[in-house]
# Entry
Amino acid sequence: MLESILFAAPGNIVSAACAGLFGLLIGSFLNVVIHRLPKMMQRESDNYVAHESGKPLPHADRYNLTVPRSACPHCGHQITALENIPIVSYLFLRGKCAECKAPISVRYPIVECITGALSALLIWRFGSGMAGLATLVFAYLLIAMTFIDADTQLLPDDLTLPLVWCGLLINLNGTFVPLKEAVIGAAAGYLSLWAIYWLFKLATGKEGMGYGDFKLLAALGAWLGWTMLPIIVLLSSLVGAVVGITLIVFTEHGRDNPIPFGPYLAAAGMITLFYGKPIAQAYLAFSY
# Structure
């Protein structure tokens, strides 16, 4: 890959650089999505329960991805435009609120860096046409889901379902895989984890994963086709096993504490997007 980058056409490098800068801005917005979407879901649920029981709505104020303005959770200081420049503002403020000096989570610039870097790599790899722009949507939704699932062990339908439909629509003309493979991939992705879920529950009486995982694998199947599903599941299981064992051995994470599977599926999906075919070819060559 490094050699390809060094000898890439100047136009590709410029497009990738622009995409990287754009990705930093999107990363700042994704931080808002990651923080607010679970709260929006909880508020909606609380209001629904209150409405059904005839009680006053506990959350009557307006709260969405744009309102109210971002503010420090400690002192309420509203974040200004100059304090919201991706990465730069964090470094300038030395990771502290401008008003009360409370620490700002390092995850904010991490999300921005990941989003910017992936944006540049995807446009360099897939170009700035329809395929390249589609992969940006793919990556942005996966990044948001990864951190939301890590925080809350939830994969919101507001993210998983659009990812499924976008995958099917982008493959109408076979952008990544033929439409038939995409449709089968979506169905097989969902049903495979659904079957594992029920087998595990019948055998142990416990729930091994959530329905959001089914929908996420369905989305990956819709984008990458059913033939990539075994690779995605294998990669996600390997990464999940390594991380899970590491958490148990080197931290106080208990064996009975659930570990979200969504981040590993998302990581496996990104790896497969870049290297799925070479991995499949290498596996077949090794098998024979």
In short: The two ends are 27 Å apart (CA to CA). The mean pLDDT is 89. DSSP finds ten helices and no strands in the chain. The first helix runs from residue 2 to 6.
